Structure formats: structure tokens, C-alpha cells
């Protein structure tokens, strides 16, 4: 499907019905009535659903001749669902688990993925991932035959493939294929790359097959990187189910830069998938949905259909209320695009998974700081045009190849600014970027494992006048030429954890400045570099000083940001979207509170009062400002190129609309 059609036909409100059914539900589908099913969906403002062709267990919910029909299923449940929904104008995609299929694995052990120990069943890991399929085995053709069977018989609108991200397989087909490609099974990184390659091959084969039947299908592959998705993105985020609250804001700001439509797929469960009796607080479900909308995305809610085929009434009442509120905003969200001026550059997002562990925590840390500071930013992988951004942030581990370096040099020469940190832009004997290399000398990795940051007066606003601990070290650097150091680093009396056969050194007071710099800017101040991985430090330790310092640097680089917000707490989110002649300011005020050992809960919205908004107009003249969907006017003034307004009370979420002449 071409991207214009995809945008036009992409749903605003979807439901993903999980339907993994253990054997033994002898009344499967017993109470399903097409008209009632459709009425439930319609009432909840649902336009599009995912239902099951084949579940993780490997059972099919249609009369398959290739796979295994769910034991005891007496009619074509999937077909009936498709028929009823299509007649009512609700579009239907069908789900296949590609990587897991226990029925196939039980009957064809030779189709299973083999782990490094030579096992095909990993009984020590009794979750549903304990048997995995191998895409290079006979399973490949079997699986495609099942997809073809569905495409031949059902007028589906899309196909959804789950569990594509399988771990490395040491089975004979994979080993022989690796050897023919010159891949060394002894090398961990080669194995990761080969698994990545096998996944993308499987995806391409499915795409080709689908293309032989239809060219207007939505195709999505869970576990495949966003940049390889052919038609759209379904961002799976269950904040209470293991994804946490950092994932959505970071990832949605990336996928929206890829030029394809996208929704977030959250879940209604208290815990995760499969928790049929778990229901999150309504405020939490609304928060995920509105967070997507505030980033110009649309919504999908994950549910699990009970075996008898009737959606849970209370679940759909809640979904109906949440989607009802979202639907009221349609006039201002249709075709709205995000508005940003900063980008976090993370080239590893396009990678083959080898860097995954090494980059953990960097993006969420970087994203959190910018979000808390209320900057308008995207996350990019480096393939897109940089010219629409005023500043790029290269957090902690951005290694630029020659093509990316050339792009960055050009970006700088056209007036762009770069803030980087840690190992970003370093090479063996200096910095990769010319302007940075002329401003700083790279001495190597930082030798002191516990340092203290002393920020110079010019950038010390709101920071305590003392050495602030840097927990995770990066590189050691000193200014050179006309480069200017904005922060000195102190060293401790000892390195943390030193062992002298009598004591482990745990209490580390600062001894003296060590001569290294924590922050250097080039003479033009177009390039700034933190010696330490500021993003990972913030992610792991959440010391507000790091964020405040980054904010002070950004204030100096971008003295007039698009949006300034006061009296919205640090956890509040402020984003911008735009339609022709309109800007929408989205304000979110919710706190995921840590409850007990692991859970983060949003039980109700938080309240903020007298929220001050300063929006840069860039020459536009505002005709009216109002709250949506109520239409209530919002008084404003204009001064120094900014629209200024005060929202007296914010309860959870508010959209503010500015309409231009
Ligand atoms: Zn294999």
C-alpha cells in the first residue's frame, strides 16, 4: 500500500483482541453473535480490529486445512467475525503468531529453533516463549501456506504477525546457511546479525506473498524494527505490563518521523497480555491514548476476547468512555502533524540489534530530560533531513559513520547546533567532528570512576554551588584552542570500590579538581560536548542537576524556544501539533506512582493551576484561542513574538487551540 493511501485509510480507534486459547475451553465461540459483537464495537467508537487466525498455541480459529483448528471449534469463528464486521463498516486485520506456534513445535520438533545448548524446548523458562520456531526450517513454507490460505478465503484489511524477533538458532538449516554466507556461529555478534537477517527475510517473503493477492493491505510485523515496517506502525506499549512509562514517549517520537501512519497499542489489563480479569484505572488507559494523540498518533487498545466469544461488558464500557473523549477531539486531530525543533539522534534504531544492550537507557534518559524541560523534539535515526531542526542532541553513544558525519558537518554549516555527550562523536584519537576536535582534546576514557561536576557561573542557574556527583563516567577531555570549558571535574580521594586488602573504599569525598572538563563548547558555541553520558546518568540516577544543566545549555543555544510552559510540574507533558491555520497545544498532567515493588499506577489525573503558556508565533497572527472540545475562549496577549496565556486550571488533559488569520 502506498503511503498516501495508508494515511487516508488508517484507523483512529482500534481494538486488538488477543485470543490465545489454551486447550480445554470446550465451549469456544458458543455465545458469539455477529450483530451483538458489532454493536459493542460501534458503541465504543471502534473502527478497526485485530482478530486471530492463529494464536501462540498454534491453534487456528477458522477451518484450516494447513494448520490445526482449535480442538472442538465447530464453526468458522474468524470468518463469522469478519463477515459481521465488514457488513457494519468495521475493518478487520487478522493475527498470526509467526515465531511461536506450540502445536507445530510439538508435532514437528525439527521446525523448532535450537539454542546454544542444543535444546529445542527450554523447560526452565516456562513462559509462552519456551518453544520457538525456526524461519529457516520447513516451518517457513508451512507458515506461508497458512497465510496464503487466509488471503484466498477472507476479505481481510490487514495482517499482523507477532513474535518475529527470535533469538539465534543453532539448528542445522541455520548453521549451513550461516556457513554459506561466511557467518561464524562462534561469534555472538555474527549470530545476532544472522537472526536479524533471517527475520527480515521472513518478513519480505510474507510481504511478497501478500502482494500477490492484494496491494491494499495493512501489514505489521511485531519484533521488526520500525524502519523496516512496510505500511504503518503499531507501537506496543503496556506501561503496567512490562513496558513502563518511558517507552511510549520515546518511541512515538521516533516512529512519527518515518513517514507512515502509526498508533499506539496499549492494553486494558492490570498486568499484561492474558490478564483477562485485570482492569487498569480508566485514567491510566486514557493517559496512554491521549499521549498518542498529543504526539499526532492514533489509538489501539489491547483486550483479550473471552473463549465464548463475547467481549467483556465492563471493559467495553470503559473503552467506550475513553474513546468517546478521544473522538470528541477528532476535528483537531484529523491530519494533525507534530511540530518540533529539536531532534535526539540515535542511529542504532536502524541497526541489527548488536548495539541493543550497549545503548540501554540512553534514549529514555535523553527523552525524559527534554520532555520534562518541555522542549519540542523528535527522535531520529539519522536517515531523515536535519534541516527542520534547530538543534540535534547526540546522547552518549552516537558513533557517526562517514555519511552521517558529512551530514552533520553540512548541518552545522547551515546554522544547526549540536549537543553531544560521552562517547558520541569520538574516534580513537580525538573527536570525529572538526569543530569539536578544534575545541577539545580527547585524553581517553575517564580514569576516575566517581567525579564531581563544578559548573561555571554562566550556566549554573538553579544548580547548587558544589561538586555534583557524576555516577557514570565517559571520556576525559580538556579544552583546546578557542574551545571553552563550562564545567570542571573534581576527583575523589580514591576511586570508588578500591580494595587495599583491608577496606573497600565506599565513602568518597572530593579531593581536588582533576584538570578534566565536564562540558566544552566550541568558540562559536554551535557544538557542545559533555564528557559524561548525561542521558544514561539521568536514566539510572535521575539527578535533577543533569537535567537543569542540559536545560541551561539549551537555553543558551535556543534562547527563544517554540513553547515555554510555567507551573506545569516536571512530570507534566506539553506537545504541539498543527493543522492548516491551527496549532494545538496539548497539556498532560498525570503521575505514574510507584506502588509496591514493581507497579506504576495512574489512578486519577493530577491538577495544575495557573499554567502559563508562551508560544512563539513566527509572524503568525492569532484570530482566536480556545479550549477543545468545549470551545471556551482562552484570553491571550501577544508580546515579543510570543502568544501569552494562562490556563487557570488543568485537570489531567487539556487541548488549547490557536487559530490563525
Ligand atoms: Zn534455525
Question: How would you explain this protein's 3D organization?
Answer:
Helix 2 crosses helix 3 (77-87) and helix 12 packs across helix 15 (534-541). It contains 16 helices and 34 strands. The protein starts with a helix and ends with a strand. Strand 28 (593-595) and strand 29 form a beta hairpin. It has a 9-stranded mixed beta sheet. An 8-stranded parallel beta sheet has the order 7-6-5-2-1-10-9-8. The protein has 3 domains: 15-97 and 135-165 and 200-335, Glycosidases (TIM Barrel, Alpha-Beta Barrel), CATH 3.20.20.80; 342-557, Rossmann fold (3-Layer(aba) Sandwich); 563-660, Golgi alpha-mannosidase II (Immunoglobulin-like). It is 26% helix and 27% strand. By secondary structure, the protein is an alpha/beta fold. It is globular. The site of zinc ion has 8 residues, from helix 6.
Quick check: average pLDDT? 96
What would CATH call the architecture of the largest domain? Alpha-Beta Barrel
Q: List low-confidence stretches.
A: none
Number of domains: 3
CATH fold node name of the largest domain: TIM Barrel
Say how many strands there are. 34
**By CATH's scheme, which homologous superfamily of the largest domain applies?**
Glycosidases
Query: Helical amount among residues, as a percent range?
Result: 25-40%
**Each distinct ligand:** zinc ion
- How big is the Rg? 27 Å
Biggest sheet record: 9 strands, mixed
Structural class: alpha/beta
What is the C-level CATH assignment of the largest domain? Answer: Alpha Beta
End-to-end separation in angstroms reads 37 Å
Our estimate of the beta-strand percent is: 25-35%
Q: Count helical runs.
A: 16
In one word, what is the shape? globular
Strand line-up across the major sheet: 13-12-14-15-24-23-22-19-20
Amino acid at each position: 500500500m502506498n503511503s498516501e493511501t495508508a494515511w487516508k485509510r488508517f484507523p483512529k480507534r482500534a481494538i486488538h483482541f488477543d485470543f490465545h486459547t489454551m486447550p480445554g475451553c470446550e465451549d469456544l465461540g458458543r455465545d458469539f453473535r455477529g450483530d451483538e459483537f458489532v454493536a459493542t464495537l460501534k458503541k465504543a467508537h471502534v473502527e478497526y480490529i485485530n482478530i486471530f487466525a492463529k494464536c501462540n498455541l498454534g491453534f487456528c480459529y477458522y477451518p484450516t486445512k494447513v494448520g490445526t483448528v482449535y480442538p472442538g471449534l465447530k464453526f468458522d469463528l474468524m470468518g463469522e467475525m469478519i463477515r459481521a464486521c465488514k457488513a457494519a463498516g468495521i475493518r478487520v486485520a487478522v493475527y498470526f503468531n509467526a515465531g511461536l506456534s506450540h502445536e507445530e513445535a510439538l508435532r514437528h520438533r525439527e521446525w523448532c529453533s535450537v539454542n546454544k545448548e542444543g535444546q529445542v524446548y527450554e523447560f526452565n523458562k516456562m513462559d509462552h516463549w519456551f518453544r520457538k520456531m525456526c524461519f529457516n526450517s520447513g516451518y517457513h513454507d508451512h507458515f506461508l501456506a497458512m497465510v496464503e490460505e487466509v488471503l484466498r478465503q477472507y476479505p481481510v484489511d490487514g495482517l499482523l504477525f507477532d513474535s518475529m524477533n527470535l533469538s539465534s538458532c543453532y539448528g542445522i538449516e541455520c548453521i549451513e546457511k550461516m556457513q554459506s554466507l561466511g557467518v561464524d556461529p562462534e561469534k555472538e555478534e555474527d549470530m545476532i546479525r544472522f537472526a536479524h537477517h533471517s527475520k527480515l527475510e521472513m518478513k519480505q517473503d510474507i510481504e511478497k506473498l501478500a502482494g500477490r493477492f492484494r496491494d491494499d493491505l495493512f501489514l505489521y510485523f511485531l519484533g521488526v524494527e520500525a524502519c523496516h515496517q512496510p505500511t504503518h506502525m503499531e507501537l506496543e506499549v503496556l506501561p503496567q505490563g512490562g513496558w513502563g512509562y518511558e517507552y511510549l514517549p520515546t518511541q512515538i517520537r521516533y516512529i512519527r518521523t518515518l513517514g507512515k501512519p502509526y498508533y499506539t497499542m496499549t492494553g486494558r489489563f492490570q498486568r499484561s497480555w492474558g490478564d483477562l480479569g485485570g482492569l487498569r484505572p480508566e485514567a491510566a488507559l486514557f493517559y496512554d491514548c491521549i499521549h498518542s494523540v498529543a504526539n499526532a498518533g492514533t489509538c489501539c487498545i489491547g483486550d483479550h476476547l473471552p473463549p465464548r466469544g463475547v467481549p467483556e461488558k465492563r471493559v467495553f464500557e470503559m473503552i467506550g468512555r475513553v474513546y468517546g473523549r478521544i473522538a470528541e477531539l477528532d476535528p483537531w486531530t484529523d491530519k494533525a502533524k507534530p511540530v518540533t525543533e529539536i531532534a535526539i539522534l540515535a542511529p542504532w534504531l536502524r541497526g541489527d540489534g548488536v548495539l541493543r544492550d550497549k545503548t540501554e537507557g540512553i534514549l529514555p534518559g535523553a527523552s525524559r530530560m527534554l520532555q520534562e524541560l518541555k522542549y519540542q523534539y523528535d527522535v531520529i535515526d539519522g536517515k531523515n533531513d536535519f534541516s527542520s531542526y534547530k538543534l540535534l542532541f547526540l546522547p552518549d553513544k552516537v558513533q557517526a559513520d562517514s555519511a552521517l558525519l558529512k551530514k552533520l558537518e553540512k548541518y552545522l554549516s547551515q546554522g544547526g547546533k549540536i549537543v553531544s555527550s560521552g562517547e558520541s562523536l569520538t574516534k580513537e584519537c580525538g573527536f570525529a567532528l572538526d569543530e569539536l576536535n578544534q575545541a577539545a582534546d580527547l585524553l581517553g576514557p575517564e580514569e576516575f570512576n566517581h567525579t564531581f561536576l563544578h559548573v561555571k557561573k554562566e550556566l549554573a542557574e538553579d544548580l547548587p554551588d558544589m561538586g555534583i556527583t557524576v555516577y557514570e563516567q565517559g571520556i576525559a577531555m580538556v579544552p583546546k584552542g578557542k574551545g571553552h570549558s563550562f564545567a570542571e571535574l573534581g576527583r575523589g580521594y580514591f576511586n570508588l570500590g578500591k580494595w587495599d586488602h583491608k577496606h573497600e573504599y565506599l565513602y568518597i569525598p572530593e579531593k581536588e579538581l582533576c584538570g578534566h572538563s565536564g562540558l566544552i563548547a566550541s568558540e562559536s558555541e554551535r557544538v557542545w560536548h559533555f564528557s559524561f553520558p548525561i542521558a544514561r546518568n539521568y536514566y539510572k540516577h535521575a539527578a535533577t542537576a543533569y537535567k537543569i544543566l542540559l536545560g541551561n545549555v539549551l537555553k543558551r543555544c535556543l534562547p527563544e524556544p517554540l513553547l515555554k510552559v510555567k507551573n506545569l510540574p516536571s512530570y507534566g507533558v506539553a506537545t504541539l501539533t498543527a493543522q492548516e491555520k491551527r496549532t494545538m497545544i496539548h497539556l498532560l498532567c498525570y503521575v505514574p506512582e510507584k506502588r509496591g515493588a514493581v507497579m506504576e499506577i495512574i489512578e486519577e489525573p493530577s491538577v495544575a493551576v495557573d499554567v502559563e503558556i508562551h508560544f512563539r508565533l513566527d509572524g503568525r497572527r492569532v484570530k482566536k484561542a480556545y479550549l477543545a472540545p468545549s470551545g471556551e475562549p482562552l484570553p491571550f496577549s501577544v508580546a515579543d513574538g510570543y502568544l501569552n496565556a494562562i490556563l487557570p486550571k488543568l485537570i489531567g488533559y487539556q487541548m488549547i487551540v490557536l487559530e490563525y488569520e
